[in-house]
Amino acid sequence: MENLKEFNVDGTVYTTELTKKFENRKPWVRPNPKHINSFIPGTIVEILVKEGQEVKEGENLMILEAMKMKNQIKMPFDGKIAKIYVAEGEKVPNRLLMMEIE
Amino acid sequence: MSLKRNILDLRKRKEKVLQGGGEKAIQKQVAMGKLTARERVTSILDEDSFHEYDMFVEHEARDFGMEKKELHGDGVIIGTGTIYGEPVCVFAQDFTVAGGSLGLMHARKITKIMDHALKMRVPLIGINDSGGARIQEGVNSLAGYGEIFFRNTLASGVIPQLSIILGPCAGGAVYSPALTDFVFVVENISKMFITGPEVIKTVLGEEITMEELGGAKVHSEITGNAHFYALSEYECFEQIKKLLTFIPWNNTKKAKAFPPKPPRPEYKIEEIVPSDPTQPYDIRNVIKSIVDDSDFFESMENFARNIVIGFGRMNGETVGFVANQPLVLAGVLDCDSSDKAARFIRYCDSFNIPIVTLEDMPGYLPGVDQEHMGVIRHGAKILYAYSEATVPKITVIVRKAYGGGYIAMNSRHMKADFMFAWPNAEIAVMGPDGAANIIFKKEIMAAADPEAMRKEKVAEYREKFANPYVAAAKGYIDTVIEPQETRNMLLHSIEVSSNKVDSRPAKKHGIPPF
Lengths: 102, 514
Hints:
- The complex is a heterodimer.
- Chain A is built from one helix and ten strands; from the N terminus they run ββαββββββββ.
- By secondary structure, chain A is mainly beta.
- Chain A has a domain at 31-101: CATH 2.40.50.100.
- Chain A has a four-stranded antiparallel beta sheet with strand order 3-10-8-5, with no helix packed on it.
- The longest helix of chain A is centred in the N-terminal third of the chain and has 4 residues, at 20-23.
- The model of chain A has no long low-confidence stretch (mean pLDDT 91).
- Chain B is an alpha/beta fold.
- Chain B has three domains: 2-246, Alpha-Beta Complex (2-enoyl-CoA Hydratase, Chain A, domain 1), CATH 3.90.226; 269-430 and 466-496, Alpha-Beta Complex (2-enoyl-CoA Hydratase, Chain A, domain 1); 432-465, no CATH class.
- Chain B has helices spanning 2-18, 23-31, 37-44, 104-120, 139-155, 175-179, 197-204, 210-214, 216-223, 233-246, 283-288, 335-350, 368-373, 375-388, 403-408, 432-439, 441-446, 450-465, 469-473, 486-496; strands spanning 51-53, 76-83, 86-93, 124-130, 161-170, 182-186, 191-193, 228-230, 297-299, 307-314, 317-324, 355-361, 393-402, 418-421, 426-428, 479-480.
- In chain B, helix 12 links the parallel strand 11 (317-324) and strand 12.
- Chains A and B meet through strand 2, helix 1 and strand 9 of A and helix 13 and helix 16 of B.
């Protein structure tokens, strides 16, 4: 028995080993509607907006190419582009914050 | 005279085929730390028992210059032999011949031996070492895979199917092992994945090595695709042979009985389990203190370690064990451990192996990731598997049996044949701490010293419910036993269950929560 840790199940604290899978699990965070995250790893082919620009719901923000598909990333609601974190040609992993809107 | 010449000609032809892909290719295979396909087959089977068929099969590709190539045996060896004197069917892909790539005739050889195994009701052992589909043969090679998968499914639950991954096994090829009962992998040699590192890099930009993506460790620890992990091919062959001592040759037979042996004296059952339900111990020691010669053969040892599955013998007869492991994650049920246990239960039920369940678990693993990964659907598999199983089913509640876990772990309500509990067992809807916080919430909040009140109420709940007698009073537990009585009670209950007849409604098949 090594690496014994405290582990709470329904209010009772047990002494036990934890698994790598359990320790590496991603904590859940409530999605922020103002964050545009990548939904698949791929390449940013084109960015169609600029910081500070007013954009209407449904307009294209950028093209994210993945699995040979050019995915259009659209504006979820009327608003303004607050910050762009990626550049054209950049390879992005999954769930990366690409843009902030307001 | 001419017969003699013909015999010499036959010998010459055979010799040629036996060279496989030739000296150079064999050297390459050896340099990778691998045995050749024929060495593998003869190492697994009884000495001189292997008989090969379809040696003279030729491939059918007529495009891309393939018509000029000679591929001995079309890259796969098939045949019959014996293990412990009992018949088995074998195929082994030969990586030295065109990378063991699967073309139409290669697949036909495999399906031929599969059909044979199913008809003769003997185990099928498949050794996978192949670069994948033979691209030059186009859709024919896809057809070949499909025919193999179909037969894997037909044979499932009728004959034991063992897949030994001794090289690459990529793309569609992975689904044959995935459909079989037991998958064996070897460190540095086995590689299984649907899409390889190169494709992943080009398409997704993620960089990973073959070993990190689908090596032996990955499949025995993370994915749960492999059941047995070995450091060398020879260790792997020993595991195969050991497994075969525990399982019957087909679903109408019982596993071979061995001379009974008592457990080894160093495993003292009454000294293993701490009475404090929050303290860990290794449940495998409890199993070893029960089974013949303390010989427990564990499957999926490194995957979902919070549940333990495997085979042992009781009075010489094979028994399947399913046991919560308090040493890891306090023995909770979660998605992975449910999958692991459910499939094993169905294996035992298909092959007439009684199931002994040792229970010590605090409930299901809490967490958003578990809920979102579908712990409801996965957890349901255990309920389904136990409910469906009609082999003798015996449960011993060693310590905790809380909540949904109590129901799932082969309770009376899942139609366990015998339910035993140790005197320190706690059978309740939840642990005393959680339960007291809910039932006595008002009293605790209103008290001058809430913490003292809470402690008092936890103690009150524990006294009242955290014992085996409430369940025993309802007949949910058949008897409360002392730990040292466990082996004898199990031996007796297995013995009296030996003619068990139980059935479920006739149906085409159920719809388990896959």
